[in-house]
Write a structure and sequence with these properties.
By secondary structure, the chain is mainly alpha-helical. 59% of the residues lie in helices and 0% in strands.
Amino acid sequence: MAGPVRARQLSEDEVRRLQQIVRRGKHGTIRVRRAMMIMASASGTPVPTIARLVTADEDTIRKLRTIT
């Protein structure tokens, strides 16, 4: 079983940008889901919970590194 995964602490600007992506939802499904994953990870949400939140595989959450 893989260990816990957590994104680094996000700056206020990064949080604001991610929130805009999620709220507007006009950037495409993948980008919105990725933004949700990053915000959840940075706030300390466990991988299994994030996976349920965005209906993704746990390994997908663990492999996520950055939003592009």
